[in-house]
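Colleagues,

Please find the record for the two-part complex below.
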Amino acid sequence: MRSVWVTRASIARAYSTQVQPVISSTLLLSRNPIITQEPSSFEKQFYKYQNELWRRLMWTFPSWFFFKPGTVAEQKYRKLNKPATPDNPNIEFPRGRPELRHNRDRRFKQTISVPKSYEDKKGETNAASETDDLARKIVPNSRITEADLKKDLASLERKLSRTLYLIIKEKGSNTWKFPNFNVPTNAEEVSGLHVVAEEGLYKIGGEKINYFNVSNTPCHVFNNLQENKKEYFIKSHILSGIFEPQESVAEFNWLSKEELKDVLPAEYYQDVSHLLNNV
Amino acid sequence: MSKVFIRQFSKTGISLKPGYSTVHPVHHLVKVEKSNLKPSLKELLVPHDDITSIKYRPYEIDQDRIAEHYTNTLKSDLMLNLYQYDADTIPANPKRSWGVDSPYKLYRPLKKPLGSIRTRGQIKPVTAKNIPEITGVTVHSYNKKALVEPWLDITTRLQVATLTNVKPKQLFAKRNLVEFKLRKGKPVGGKVELTGRDMTQFLSTLIELVLPRIRTFKGIKNSSGDKKGNITFGLTNEDMQFFPEIEAFQDLYPNMNGLHITIKTSASNDEQARTLLSAYGFPFTNA
């Protein structure tokens, strides 16, 4: 009986001497997608089919409303849009008889050429007029940026259609991780998890960064058993500015979910992968 | 003023037009639509989303940028932002009974809700299942000048149709008011209920092209809202010129009319609705 008591006491002592885990705050700083997702080939085909169908079923363009008869605009419009071939009972139409309603052949979609609001200056290559002219032709930028081509992982302008997350490599360490900051233990300096994350971000990334904290509530806790740490995740978005690595940071990257899988320690990634955006 | 119901053999409806019915039917309670009975109108019975229907119109013609942004980015943020620890359902604040101890109380119109004029539905804690989203947008254009000059009603509806890509419903004056020159049943403009693609298209135009260019616009008032998560604001007739559909053809629309825009959300109160709308880029102000 006595021996049993002794063993119990020894177990209790072992527990009481264990150190309390360190509370820390991890910053999940992401850059949201800037452009639309790349649709899959099926989606592309589906949208193309639906779009063509929509154009086919569309109402006839009321040109009499937008180009008033007797105006210069109407003359320009008529020059660009020749009237459709009318039906003639005396003529054979090998490709089918036209069905004209309001000058539109009902069998096909209606294609309209609208007079250009800009002038096509083919000979001139004046750089100033190209960039400043309000009436210039609108050409969308490429979805692939310079950073994509250079494979610059530290650039915020890579993978515009994906959510990117900030990971860092601290000096003297060899592992990639999300920025993590310990909450001060003494009673005077102690502050909220989100405050620790915000102040920590400025410490590692300089003050040229404009961010938005989604909530003061952490979205996840990771039990770091190796370092006896509880890491609370604070979700945040970078809105503008740049991340300028300070002294404590050896390297930093902006990576998407798939790239993080290869870089982060496997156990750590498995624990946090549900927080990361698939898009 | 009480509502007038016109009863016909086929259906019963609230009448906003003047006139009366000489028919006194009370004998059948089954609702019958005449178009269902006529063989020549069989084509109209096919549901509009069926490709064989004459009213079929494909909607999913392109990527929906705004809807994608909501599902990919905003939704998870809103769930975290609106999370409250240990939250309970706050019961609704409905109109109250005066009591049942006297026939006078029994038939009296209900008492106002406690501490408020308007009623409020119950507020449930936000979980993954009930993250607030925009369910619809109502664009309503009431043109009081159309009471004097009836043709203005047509231009008002044309303007709403141009902006929203949807054919508006006709609005009629509801009552007789001499001081406002109101005559019951007069056409006074139009309104549309937007959902899906038309809605996201209209919202993106509003957020990105129209509101930023209105110099006097400071934001939607924080006091706006019906306590149930639906937020309304107005645009004046001068603001209409910033809609790109109208901008290039301003001479075709000489008589512009303002709009009332109601954004309907599934949020259970206005505060959540404001959070949702500001995530979409609508500014809010106290002024």
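The interface with chain B takes residues 32-33, 36-37, 39, 43, 46-47, 50-51, 53-54, 57, 65-66, 117, 163, 214-215, 217, 219, 235, 237, 277, 279 of chain A (CB under 8 Å).

Comments are welcome before we finalize the supplementary table.
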